[in-house]
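Students often ask why we bother encoding 3D structure as a string. The short answer is that it lets us treat folding as translation between two languages. Here is a chain of 145 residues written in the first language.
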Amino acid sequence: MIGKPSELDGSTTRFCPGKAGLSVLISEDDLRETVSVGKSLKAAAKEPAAQMWFEPFNSTLTIVEWRMAGKKPFAIIQRWLIADNADRDAKDRPRDKAMLAVTACRPAKCAMSPMSTSQPIRMRTNWRARPPTSWRAISNAARTR
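And here it is in the second language, the structure alphabet:
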């Protein structure tokens, strides 16, 4: 954790070492997290993924799977827990639903894609988790469906 939790709202920032000189930035504010990857804290904070979040309350699990092309990371896969406001428990609190998200680690394009069961979205998400040499072919296939 970087610094102490904010006294005003309890927000936190964590910066963890990753692969090949990249690190993972996890920021939490108002019970919502963002996850980004970069060579430094400043670089990770500027990536598009650092500005993307889910509207409902959410959290991430601690394990990140690195997708590699040789020794070069090109994506991370992480499990998220998203509050489902339509599914309430006995105390009227939203139940958490697990979801996988892929964050592509391409320079200045570290963007997150949630996994989905619909074919067009699944194709776009699936190509983010593949080695860079196959991005163009899979991207073109997704557009034609």
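Translate back mentally: The chain has one domain: 12-144. Keep this in mind for the problem set.
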